[in-house]
Write a structure and sequence with these properties.
The protein is mostly helical and 105 residues long. It contains 4 helices and 2 strands, in the order ββαααα. It is elongated and about 55 Å long. The two termini are 33 Å apart. The N terminus is likely disordered.
């Protein structure tokens, strides 16, 4: 069984927004996982496997992650970002600079 490939890109993310409403995912799963999602799709009369995956997350997701982000966590992240920007400023880096930084290790 090969590891799953998961690529996520937020579609509605803005600075200060707590969580994006939807994300676009390109997922490679094994045959069994695909069948399970297909069964959930049919059992609940859902329109596609994306809706089935959402249903699965609703049924079992709270075992692994809180449904909503707590205000305290959001405040800590914002304060951390503010401290960083205050200390280092808001710097933009070019792809060339990032590549040089990564490849120097």
């Amino acid at each position: 069984m090969q590891p799953k490939e998961l690529k996520i890109s937020p579609t509605n993310f803005m600075l200060g927004e707590i969580m994006a409403n939807q994300v676009t995912m390109n997922v490679k799963v094994n045959e069994y996982t695909s069948r399970v999602i297909g069964v959930i799709k049919e059992k609940y009369g859902l329109k596609d496997k994306a809706a089935a995956l959402d249903k699965f997350a609703q049924m079992h997701g709270e075992e692994y992650a809180d449904r909503e982000i707590k205000d305290e966590v959001v405040r800590e992240v914002i304060e951390s970002c503010d401290r960083h920007i205050k200390k280092y400023g808001f710097r933009k880096r070019t792809v060339k600079d990032l590549r040089k930084l990564i490849e120097s290790d």
